[in-house]
Give the backbone structure.
Amino acid sequence: GKNRLKNRIEVKLDYSEIDDQDDVQASLVHRLDYSDQRMTAYLFSELISGDKILTSPQPSISTNMTSLFSGTYDGLSFSTEGYFSYKPNRQWSFSGDAVFELIEPDNNAAAGYHLAFTEKVNYVRYVPNARMRRIYEVEQYVSYDMFDFSANGNVTLGALGFYAGYYPTGWAKISTKIKMQQDFETDVQELGFGLYADITFSKFDLGLEYENGMRTDDDLGLLLERDEQRWQVKVKKTF
């Protein structure tokens, strides 16, 4: 197929009046997309200025906050995200993305930024001469998140994860997941491990899960050392 490049720019102006309160918001959006037989990529950017800008919550598990900053504010917002995926053949695939978000309220109460990177590598081994039948699959990913907000301080998280799945038959799957996370500001370390078994038929599904999670205490004495285990059985019957 032919290479495809798309470029889009959008300008929007919103005006609202509620109980004699006038709110004006202007936004500029740009998106660039590229795709061919082996690669897909896009770059998305958005600039917003005005009143009642809505922000998405930035969760922080290790600091036990529901969010670093969320809600609406008057001021300026800028965000950009770049993503790519590359698949040289049936077996291998590579992907990655980067995100930058900037918040600049007029009162400077919760000004700050969020920076994130993610990288993922996946390999699938298929049964010879069987187009879709998998034998096993392995995946590795790395992520990095940094939040810097004047109202809540800094949070820097790094994570490394692994996944492996084995398919002994077309209707059975055994898999495992491992995730290690580090909070570089508080020195909290988390380790998660899971084992899964799934049996799938046309009208009957059975799933078994075991997960174990461990967390160290932090330098501030706000979080205690933790060790959790979870078992789950899922059964689904379709009539």
Notes: The CA atoms of residues 80 and 87 lie 24 Å apart. Residues 57-68 have pLDDT under 50 and may be disordered. DSSP finds no helices and twelve strands in the chain. The longest strand covers residues 39-55.
